[in-house]
Specification:
Layout lengths: L24 E10 L5 E10 L2
Antiparallel strand pairs: 1-2
C-alpha cells in the first residue's frame, strides 16, 4: 500500500509497518521518497519474515 508522511528539511522519522499478518517467506520491499521536485529517491530491501 501507499503511505504518505511529511518530513521537513533537517529532520528524520522512524515509521513502523505492521507485517504480522503477512505470511512467512522472502519479500522485496521498495521504499520511495518523492521530494516534490525533480528528484525521487528509492532503495530496495530484502525482507525475510519468519514465525
Amino acid at each position: 500500500g501507499e503511505f504518505y508522511m511529511r518530513i521537513y528539511p533537517g529532520t528524520s522519522i522512524r515509521y513502523r509497518v505492521d507485517l504480522s499478518q503477512v505470511p512467512k517467506g522472502s519479500y522485496r520491499a521498495l521504499v520511495v521518497a518523492d521530494c516534490g521536485g525533480e528528484d525521487i529517491f528509492g532503495v530496495t530491501y530484502t525482507l525475510e519474515l519468519e514465525e
